[in-house]
């Protein structure tokens, strides 16, 4: 919790999934994260790597890539295990 003008507000964890159209593993990861949002509070956004040449070159061979609060936490085949994603997300949520 952080104090803003005397009121306590919860910090919101920001989760970004780097993806591209046709990536089925990416779709599964995004669906899993949306389900997790029913249980845990975090902001979820996606970024299409094909719209930015720098992102495309960096992530083309390892998508999906999950960045949590500015730090890349999981990528590629490691995300085929939804338990890994849940574990990393929950560690981040409970350490904030």
Any chance you could write out the topology, listing elements then pairs?
Elements: E1 2-4, E2 7-9, E3 13-19, H1 24-37, E4 42-48, H2 53-59, E5 65-68, E6 71-75, H3 82-95
Parallel strand pairs: 3-4
Antiparallel strand pairs: 1-2, 3-5, 5-6
Shape by Cα distribution: globular
Query: Which secondary-structure class do the elements indicate?
Result: alpha+beta
Kindly report the CATH topology: Glutaredoxin
The total of helices stands at 3
Strand content: 25-35%
Oligomeric state of this protein: single chain
Q: Can you give the mean pLDDT?
A: 88
CATH superfamily, by name, is Glutaredoxin
Helix content: 25-40%
The span between the termini is 8 Å
String of helices and strands:
EEEHEHEEH
Tell me the Rg in angstroms. 14 Å
As for the number of domains, it is 1
> What is the highest CATH level, the class?
Alpha Beta
Kindly report the spatial arrangement of strands forming the biggest sheet: 4-3-5-6
* CATH arch. level architecture: 3-Layer(aba) Sandwich
Uncertain stretches: none
Q: Count the strands?
A: 6
Largest sheet: 4 strands, mixed
């Amino acid at each position: 919790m952080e104090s803003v003008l005397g009121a306590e507000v919860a910090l919101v964890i920001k989760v970004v999934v780097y993806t591209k159209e046709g990536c089925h593993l990416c779709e599964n990861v995004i669906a899993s994260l949306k389900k997790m949002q029913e249980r845990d509070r975090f902001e979820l956004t996606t970024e299409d790597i094909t719209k930015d040449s720098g992102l495309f070159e960096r992530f083309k061979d390892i998508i999906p890539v999950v960045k949590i609060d500015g730090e890349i936490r999981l990528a590629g085949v490691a995300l085929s295990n939804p338990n890994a994603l849940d574990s990393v997300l929950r560690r981040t949520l409970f350490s904030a």
